[in-house]
Amino acid sequence: MGLLDGKVAIITGAGGGLGEAYAKLFAREGASVVVNDLGGPRDGSGSDLSMAQQVVDAIKKEGGKAVANGSDISTISGGQSVFDDAIKAFGKVDILVNNAGILLDQTFAKASEAAWDKVMKVHLKGTFCVTQPAFKWMKENGGGVIVNTSSTSGLIGNFGQSNYGAAKGGIWGLSNVLAIEGRKYNIRVWTLAPGALTRMTADLPRYIENPGAALGPDGIAPAVLYMVSDLSGSQTGKVLGVSGPRGVREMKMMEMEGWKPPHDGWSAQDVVTHAGEIFFSEEASQHGARRF
User: Fold this and answer.
1) Burial class, 119, CB count within 10 angstroms (exposed 0-12 / middle 13-18 / buried 19+)
2) Which of 85, 96, 99, 128 is the one with CA 20 to 30 A from 174?
3) How many C-alpha atoms does 229 have within 13 Å on its Cβ side?
4) In 3-state terms, the chain is what percent helix, strand and coil (to 5)?
5) Region label for 2, one of left (φ > 0), alpha (ψ between -120 and 50) or beta (otherwise)
6) Which of 164, 185, 207, 226 is labelled catalytic?
7) Structural domains in the chain?
8) pLDDT digits over 214-264, tens only?
9) Residue 185 is among the residues annotated as catalytic for this protein
């Protein structure tokens, strides 16, 4: 008996890398899977349905159930197409994993409007386009689980990834809202910040310099299975970071209790005077906490 017996999952960007690992693991655990992938290189150019179909063929060869979808998820019609294929093939949607993405890294001073718009469209708008029809269906049909893929580039920051970081930070914000709006409808929403060695990340300096510390896609997939299965219970609105160097850990924004200014006015100098109440001390880092 599998952890996802009888479930139907949509996974975007599942023609390779992380999405492929999720799709194959979910299928082995009993889920029927819609494998979406536009195909083509990591910069988002071109299309090739054969990538998604190859994953579907591999799943079917192992006795699983899957269908391929090659729609562009950065469009409303593409997002609707992915949902429609799930309903047509399997009759419902229990799980959505928004994983599709591209990289067009540039330092901010050299950032082009075209690269900025394309990264935003695929990551942030794409998450919206695929999630809205699935969210609406889950709302009317007893709930489900949504996993949105963010990144430490968006939660903490990373050199040369202003477009990617901004998009991934936006996805985190979207997830927070969806968790609030979906709670009463039994829609659980997770945010994932994976760090894995894939074709998208193979030439990033941190992986070139220390390849032995990197996880492959199969090292990330168990965390996503945990999120979408009953193993995670009723948890929602949480961020799970998964990477080789730091393992599996919850990530969250921390807020100080703060200083309450008097009603009769206050000055900038008061911030200095009450800094201990307003700002985190460096002591937190000594206990393994990272602020972001």
Assistant:
1) buried
2) 85
3) 19
4) 45, 15, 35
5) beta
6) 164
7) 8-251 (3.40.50.720), 254-292 (no CATH)
8) 688 999 999 999 999 999 999 999 999 999 777 899 999 988 989 999 999
9) no
